[in-house]
Amino acid sequence: MRNIVLALSMASLVGCFTTRVVSTAAPRGNETEETTLYFVYGLTDAKVNASGCANGLSAVEFEFPWYYVFVRGLSGGLIDIGTTKYTCAAPAGGSGDSTPQAAK
């Protein structure tokens, strides 16, 4: 019983980890969100499909959500989960109000 209380107490102290990178390019369209599983203690890399962003990215944000601790704990640390959000960049000199083209 003491171990369960200790484990729940430790889990309640865990927060999200977030990293955000923003460029000077104007945003174009809506923010897109992708959730990715990482295997083998995070040794695999994230694959984000931003091929519809012909002019690059305006902003990218990566986050380990609060529940990743439970996913990692239940898998013995072999699986992590992360969320990547990104916004496409507008063409240079563009207004930024057009929508991204679908990837072909």
What does this protein structure show overall?
The chain is an alpha+beta fold. It has one domain (16-89). It is 17% helix and 37% strand. It is built from two helices and four strands, in the order H-E-E-E-H-E. It has helices at residues 2-12, 68-74; strands at residues 17-22, 27-39, 57-64, 79-89. A four-stranded antiparallel beta sheet has the order 1-3-4-2, covered by helices on one side. The chain is elongated and about 65 Å long. Mean pLDDT is 77; it is low at 96-104.
Write the layout of secondary structure elements.
Elements: H1 2-12, E1 17-22, E2 27-39, E3 57-64, H2 68-74, E4 79-89
Antiparallel strand pairs: 1-3, 2-4, 3-4
Helix percent reads 10-25%
The largest sheet is: 4 strands, antiparallel
How would you name the oligomeric state of the polypeptide chains in this document? Answer: single chain
Average predicted confidence as pLDDT: 77
Order of helices and strands: HEEEHE
Question: Radius of gyration in whole Å, from Cα?
Answer: 18 Å
Q: Beta-strand percentage?
A: 35-45%
**Low-confidence regions:** 96-104
Spatial sequence of strands, sheet with the most strands: 1-3-4-2
**In terms of structural class, how would the helical and strand content be classed?**
alpha+beta
Tally of structural domains: 1
State the distance separating the first and last CA atoms. 56 Å
Let me know the number of strands.
Answer: 4
Total number of helices:
2
Molecular shape: elongated
